[in-house]
Amino acid sequence: MSTLALPRPAGAPGALGWLRANLFSSWPNGILTLLALYLLWRMLPPFVDWAFLDAVWSATDPKACRAAKGEGACWAFVAEKHRFILFGTYPYEEHWRPALGILVMLALYTVSALRRFWRPRLALFWLAGLTVVGVLMWGGVFGLRYVENERWGGLMLTLLLATFGLAFAFPLSILLALGRRSQLPMVRGFCVGYIELIRGVPLISLLFMASVMLPLFLPAGVTIDKLLRAQIAMILFAAAYLAEVVRGGLQGIPRGQYEAADALGLSYWKKTALVVLPQALRISIPPLVNTFIGFFKDTSLVVIIGLFDLLTSIKVSLQEPAWTGFGVEAYIFASLVYFVFCYTMSRYSQGLERDLDRQERPGARMGALRDA
Amino acid sequence: MPDQAIIELQGVNKWFGAFQALKNIDLKVARGEKIVVCGPSGSGKSTMIRVINRLEAHQSGRVLVDGTELTDDLRAVETIRSEVGMVFQQFNLFPHLTALENLTLAPIWVRKMPKREAEALALQLLERVRIPEQAHKYPAQLSGGQQQRVAIARALAMRPKIMLFDEPTSALDPEMIKEVLDVMVELAREGMTMVVVTHEMGFARTVADRVCFMDAGEIVETAPPAEFFGAPRTERAKLFLSQILGH
């Protein structure tokens, strides 16, 4: 270093300085701080008492819970019903199959989250993973008992709908987004029409159409089962939304990138796959994850066509006479499950953005200069 | 002058909407020849060299590159593009790939070169543009001059017969211009056919076989540099030179 850098002047020192700077910097700020503290003091201790200290954690008999009602939470309900909440009415002795299926899906998520696996082969891995999950759930081969999909339910069904939904909707959305920017009027027209039509309709009405109206149009004797119809409706729906997100990313790619790829003699598909999409999808990560999160929660709408997802199986458990009245606990638990998945996605996307920023964008410049 | 033309533009016209960007352009470039194209901004210089690899399509006239006429036939266009290297004002490196990967992309995917071979070639080219140590950095981690040298190496990795340069030093900080020009001078010495749009008149003097002066979409004057700079024939060229060299 040629010149000495001056040390940064220290601000007000210690915890007291931090308090003054952040919580009591002005009169209104001070009042807000006090108000927030008061609310916390009023709300937090009773909640901790109810949720943890006075809670009933395990009981095979709802009576223990009844006795504590109003004082403590009845987590015993969740403990008692966890199999049903996880797997719905799937045959009890076969529960290892959906359990293994969930593990396979978690493995798919984990591998997909790691950047070093971002290779075309990842698509094959997904195909294999989803096939394994399908075989496990359906059975009928390899000595596995056949389980009709009316009996699938619970968290497993939620994950199935979300995972298969996104696995198929995402590639479809990329094609739609590319099509929307195509030079060919027919392709462009179809894609624009599709995206606008689907986006203009609520998911609920699509699900209704898939479950109620579609069978009316099919020729006699042809039936597609309900779950598949719902899944297809969700894929079509998610694809339209994701397509717009991907299109946003595509628009963020400067023209120079296309020209540089053209000038090297790359064909349209090679240019798209090697130059345009890798960049467009990176730009789109935050809004993509946002859409994923929304879609994950939207799967709960299948309740209206009589499928038992996580939320519905909780609701059904509550209808059992012995356990009625523990709705608060049940829904807190459901929220917690949704939250864990969604928050994980959200944190992952933030981390990923930071990583990519550090490495490949001009912000990384300073680091590079220091290394040199 | 060698007789064999590798680039031939015959009566080329090009419009952007109602605006005529190129007016009846005739130009022959011989194999191994170095042409510097200059002229005021908006004169059609960039458009003209972008017509040579069909980044812009011309609307009338003929463009022949290495014996192939450029038409709507995409196959032919892609083949010609793989033979013609281009360097842009804004570098246009692929920001998601390292310098090395920028160089190997087209050889691997267009030329079907084995990866190992492509990497060896890429390293050799990075050596040639004097930044082998930056091979594994991303474009954002490189200075402008370094990025432009990677961009030149990327074009060279396709072993092109022709190199087009579209104002390669205009976006660079002054202290980085020389390192890029040095690479270009060296390339010229090795006998590459080059068409260079630039305002670097020093470069034109030392390297060009002919200087091509454009104004308002026309080629106004074409002459060897000594003649062009010493005694420009047209008023427009005189005015341009007085403006660009006048300080």
Kindly describe this structure.
The complex is a heterodimer of chains A (372) and B (247). With 372 residues, chain A is mainly α. Chain A has a domain at 155-370: Orthogonal Bundle (MetI-like fold). Chain A has helices at residues 14-22, 27-53, 62-68, 76-87, 96-113, 121-138, 154-180, 185-199, 203-217, 226-251, 255-263, 268-283, 285-298, 310-318, 327-360, 365-371; one strand at residues 308-309. In chain A, α7 (154-180) crosses α10 (226-251), α8 crosses α10 and α9 (203-217) crosses α10 (226-251). The two termini of chain A are 12 Å apart. Chain B is of the alpha/beta class and 247 residues long. Chain B has helices at 45-52, 74-83, 99-109, 115-128, 144-156, 174-189, 201-207, 225-230, 235-245; strands at residues 5-16, 19-30, 34-38, 60-65, 68-69, 84-87, 162-166, 193-197, 210-215, 218-223. At the A-B interface, α11, α12 and α16 of A face α2, β6 and α3 of B.
Write the layout of secondary structure elements.
The complex is a heterodimer of chains A (372) and B (247).
Chain A: H1 14-22, H2 27-53, H3 62-68, H4 76-87, H5 96-113, H6 121-138, H7 154-180, H8 185-199, H9 203-217, H10 226-251, H11 255-263, H12 268-283, H13 285-298, E1 308-309, H14 310-318, H15 327-360, H16 365-371
Helix pairs in contact in A: 4-7, 4-14, 5-6, 5-7, 7-8, 7-10, 7-14, 8-10, 9-10, 10-12, 10-13, 11-12, 13-15, 14-15
Chain B: E1 5-16, E2 19-30, E3 34-38, H1 45-52, E4 60-65, E5 68-69, H2 74-83, E6 84-87, H3 99-109, H4 115-128, H5 144-156, E7 162-166, H6 174-189, E8 193-197, H7 201-207, E9 210-215, E10 218-223, H8 225-230, H9 235-245
Parallel strand pairs in B: 3-8, 3-9, 6-7, 7-8
Antiparallel strand pairs in B: 1-2, 1-4, 4-5, 9-10
Helix pairs in contact in B: 3-4, 3-5, 4-5, 5-6
User: What is the terminal-to-terminal distance of chain A?
Assistant: 12 Å
Q: Sum up the overall morphology of chain A in one term.
A: flat
Order of helices and strands of chain B: EEEHEEHEHHHEHEHEEHH
Q: Which geometry of chain B do the CA atoms define?
A: globular
In this structure, how is the largest beta sheet of chain A organized?
A: none
Helix proportion of chain B: 25-40%
Instruction: Tell me the series of helices and strands of chain A, N- to C-terminal.
Output: HHHHHHHHHHHHHEHHH
